[in-house]
Write a structure and sequence with these properties.
This protein is α+β, with helices and mostly antiparallel strands. The protein is built from 6 helices and 4 strands. It has a 4-stranded antiparallel sheet. Strand 1 and strand 2 form a beta hairpin. Helix 2 runs parallel beside helix 4 and helix 3 runs antiparallel to helix 4.
Length: 173
């Protein structure tokens, strides 16, 4: 059956649980729910118990009814894993946008345009603290005044100096 289902970057899959009691005749006897993030559902397979935040249980036994074990594993993935991340999961597209903004700020800083990075950070209401520090230090290194740096961030020169002025970056940074 192999159903493709995804939730905010978490992709459902199954793993076989094997009966290895006879080394010459190893057969799949069940399925265990799995997620692309590394979470594993209940498993009777040695060494797989309790991985990924779910403890104990039995594997979903493969029966003659086609797809029954996979449907049970999918229900477990949804009910035991996804339900707990729904409220705190960052949508994949939002996470990508945030990383992209951080990379663009880093590029401005490295291109010796820290004042532009500081102005963008001000628009974000201070949500890029590391980039704010790096941009302020770089601006200072490039001889921008603490008044200019504070103004770019929407704070006083004294606040800018106290927050970022204690250390200067190396020349190559």
């Amino acid at each position: 059956m192999k159903t493709a289902i995804e939730y905010d970057g978490h992709v459902f899959s199954t793993r076989d649980v094997l009966d290895e009691s006879d080394p010459e005749f190893i057969v799949p006897v069940g399925l265990v729910a799995a997620c692309s993030c590394g979470w594993l559902g209940a498993s009777a397979a040695p060494g797989m118990e309790g991985k990924g935040g779910y403890q104990g249980g039995e594997a979903h036994v493969i029966t003659n009814e086609e797809g029954e074990a996979e449907r049970a594993a999918m229900a477990e993935w949804r009910d035991e894993h996804i339900i707990f991340i729904e409220d705190s999961a960052i949508p994949a597209t939002l996470a990508k946008h945030i990383r992209d903004v951080g990379e663009q700020l880093d590029a401005l800083i490295q291109a010796d345009k820290p004042m532009a990075a500081l102005a963008a950070i001000r628009l974000s209401e201070g949500n890029f603290a590391r980039q704010a520090r790096d941009a302020a230090l770089r601006a200072s290194y490039l001889d921008h005044s603490w008044s200019q740096i504070g103004e770019a961030l929407g704070i006083s020169k004294q606040a800018a100096w106290e927050r970022y002025g204690k250390v200067r970056p190396e020349a190559g940074r």
